[in-house]
Structure formats: C-alpha cells, structure tokens
Amino acid sequence: MKTIKLAVIGAGARGFLAYMPYVQRFPREVEIVAVAEPNEERRQRFEEAFNLGAEQLYSTWEELLSQPKLCDALLICTQDQMHYEPTIAALRKGYHVLLEKPMSSSPSECVEMEKVAREEGRLLSICHVSRYTPFWQTMKRLVSEGSIGEIMSIQHNENVGYLHYAHSFVRGNWRNDELSSPMILAKSCHDMDLIRWLVDADCSKVSSFGSLGHFRIENAPAGSTDRCTDGCEVESSCPYSALRFYMQDLKSNPFAALIADPPTETNRMNAILSGPYGKCVYRTDNNVVDHQTVNMEFENGVTVMFSMSGFTRDINRIVQIMGTKGEIRGDLLNGRIELFEFSTGTQSVIQIPNNQSGHQGGDDGIMRQFVSDLRHERYSGTLTSAQASLESHLMAFAAESSRLNGGAVVEMKQFRESLAPASPSNAAV
C-alpha cells in the first residue's frame, strides 16, 4: 500500500489537533514531510510529533511552495482570508489540496479555486467534515432510500452555544467579517452544505434576516470595564466572565486550551490580561451576527428554513425533514434519529454511538477519505470536492447579500452569473 505524503500549511487547532491524530494512528498510510507555520512553538510541536528535520520546517507557505514538489498533497488550515493564494499556488504546482472551510471569504475566489482545480486535474477537497459523520450519513441514507418519500420541507437549527459564540465570534478569530468571514460562511457553511446534500438539488431562491443584536457597547452592564480584569463590578455574575471561563480545568472546558500555547495557567492568565480573550464581550471589535435565519427554495420545490443562534445552552444541530410519506427528526448532540412513517403510524429510533474524535468522527472521516481518494486517483466528483462544495458556499454568500439588503430575495441563477472568476493569482509558482 502506497504511503501518501502530506505537508501542512497552518499548524494551529485544525492543522494539528483535528487532523494529525489520524496521521499518528496510521503512520503506514500517511507521512508528514513538511510544515509551514509562522508560530515557532507550533513548528516545534510538528517537529517533535513527526521527527522532522530543520530543513522540513518553514515559516511561511511561500517558502514551502518555493521548493521543488515535496509530496502528494497539502493540508491548508490557515485563517479564512488566507486560503485563496496558497491554494491556487499549490494547485498550479501540482499538489492535491485538502482545504479547511470556508474555501474563501470571496465568492469570486471560490469560483476561481474550483475552476483551477478542474483545469489542473487536481483534487481540491473542502473540510465539510459533517458529511463524514455516522449521524449525517445515516440521515442521508434514510432520505436516499425513500424512507419518507419525497422531501417537501426541512427545518434546520444550528445552536452555536452561548460560550462557543462568545469565545469564537465575539472575542476570537471569527469575530469580525473583515478579518475572517460573515457568520453564515464562517460557522454555518457546514449547514448550507448539509442542506444542499440532503435536498440534492440546486437552490433557486434565498432570503435572510439577522443582526448583531446583543454584543454591543450599548448593552454593556453598568459598572463593566474594557477588560474583565480591570475591576469590573459585574464580573463575578457575568455569564461571559473571561476569568471564570478560561481559568477552568482544561478537561471541562476545551476552549480554554485555545487561548495560549502551551495553555498553562500562567499563559492563559497572560492571554486574559493582554489579549482579545480578556476583553469585555460588549466592548470588542466584533461585527458578525449573533442570530440569523435563512429561507431557501430549491429547484425541485423543496423549501428550507435555517436558523442560527448564539444564545443556546448546548452546541448542537437539530433537524426536521418532512416528506410525503413520513418525517425524520435528528438531534446531533444526543445522537438520536427518529423516523415516523405515515402509512403505519409507527416510530423507530436510531441511536448513533458517541464518537470521541473531533466533530463526531468527521475529522477522522475526511482524512480517511482524502487519503483513499489520493491512493485510488479519484480527483473529481468526490464527496466534498470543490465542485460539490461551491454551490453551498454560493448559497451562504447569497444569504448574506440578502441580509445586508433588507431580506430581499436573491435569485440564485442571476447571482451565479454575476460572479466573474478572480484574476489568476500572482502566488502561482
């Protein structure tokens, strides 16, 4: 069996913590030959984990891609607005690419990336990891088998979780769409992808409403301060207290481990005192929405209502799929799928076993599939190829366009036609 050789661009939470456990468990299948990462500690972590030499460590993706071709494929796990240039350069250089979602914060760049992958005959797979989970694959199987007849409508709720929202989208890397992407893309492109996959038709119309309703300076409590450590009078009772949240035991709060590297108590306290994670949630430079709804109509007549909220207890997705012969209800957090059949009036319950790996097994799943696709030279038409992912990205962009224009209906055919491919990237080497 051929060992697939990979290099990683971006060695943070996704590049290392999400995808490298698979590599470490299956060293005969996959070998890491290089890493590009500006953070020295993260480079050293890769060096130690995979016995890399100094010549295999790069500070930037430009340095890595200036070398003769090193391996079969690249994992590109940089921030949202840093995807386009290294991806185009890698494809032009002859690499296959596993790209962290979203593809780009620009719709034209997404179109261009898919086009270049086709032109070069390269696999560009997008990390829509949810498709690889037992939960969503079971949902897809039930729909495809006709268990509920023809789908008529779907209601899909994304419960972001109040602490997850505060960490990632108020204080964190995805708090401002000028630094990352709009919320509907940064967080909910998974949901747009799942909806498109379940419906199995192109979207024809989109409208959307939503806003940043709560995490604003005018809602700051009396006595609050710029930072939680500045003598805030309400810190002890605030649900978003950085001190209480980030100084918890790391096993009980996985977000706490993400604010400092390594996440020692001293490093975490320093991050709270001086970094964005210690800011008052009402006084940051955040601008992404904290709640949003999207209404969609598809070319096969299916209608979908999607709702995202940052004000929920749990981090969960709940879906209801209504068909001509029955109904499916799914609760991702509890791994519970209910199938109700109209003809018999009976309900059956499918319990999905809890998977301890990231994203309910999706992180392992996409690595397994990507390696298999490379080994068997499947470079197009794969489960989360750029071709498959582009349409759901465009749905997200159209929803944001609608939201910014008072909820006006966006005709998807016209929206697609309006997107001229971006100019070829100067990053190609």
Structural class: alpha/beta
Radius of gyration, in angstroms, nearest whole number = 22 Å
**Number of domain units:** 3
Beta-strand percent range: 15-25%
What is the CATH topology classification name of the largest domain? Answer: Dihydrodipicolinate Reductase, domain 2
Measured between the Cα atoms of the first and last residue, the distance is 31 Å
Q: Which word captures the global form?
A: globular
Please trace the helix and strand order, writing H or E for each element: EHHEHEHEHEHEHEHHHEHHEEEEEEHHEH
Number of helices: 15
Describe the structure.
It is a single chain. By secondary structure, this protein is of the alpha/beta class. The protein contains 15 helices and 15 strands. It has helices at 13-18, 20-25, 40-50, 61-65, 84-93, 107-120, 134-144, 162-171, 183-186, 189-199, 242-246, 265-274, 362-375, 386-404, 412-417; strands at residues 4-9, 30-36, 57-58, 73-76, 96-99, 124-126, 151-159, 203-211, 291-298, 303-309, 316-323, 326-331, 336-341, 346-351, 410-411. It has a nine-stranded mixed sheet with strand order 14-13-12-11-7-10-9-8-15. A six-stranded parallel sheet has the order 3-2-1-4-5-6. The longest helix is centred in the last third of the chain and has 19 residues, at 386-404. It is globular. The two termini are 31 Å apart. Mean pLDDT is 94; it is low at 422-429. Belongs to the Gfo/Idh/MocA family.
